[in-house]
Amino acid sequence: MTQYELEQLVKEISFRFFGQKFSHQVKINHRMTTTGGRYHLNDHHLEINAHFLLPQYRDELIGIIKHELTHYHLHLAGKGYHHRDRDFKVLLNQVGGYQFTPDIGLRRTKKVRYAYLCQDCGQNFMRVRRINLRRYVCGNCGGKLIQLTLK
Q: Sign (positive/negative) of CA torsion 83, 42, 17, 47?
């Protein structure tokens, strides 16, 4: 989807679901990973996550646009545009926008690389980072830790 097509889609959704015109910019952000979109209060432009522009995520993209347009229209109307505000929750529910960004596998998960075992109580500890075995002891009993090998 091109920048122009995205702008046309936002204008169409704004008029169809909100009954109001969208007259500001829409930008594509290629760096977003955990966020679907963003509304900027200072100049009223919208940013949309480029990953959701793929054809298989069309429904998710529409839900994200509805969410950002909810912020946009409420802010310009002088009503509560924050996630916590009642005006926001009611309008978002009316238009059927997403409350949270759907997970399409962009979020990075940390892989467990180190495993430790307490020699006294047998408690296992899984860690992403390595720890100094001379400095740290078991949090349960204070026993000595040994490093296990992960496969």
A: negative
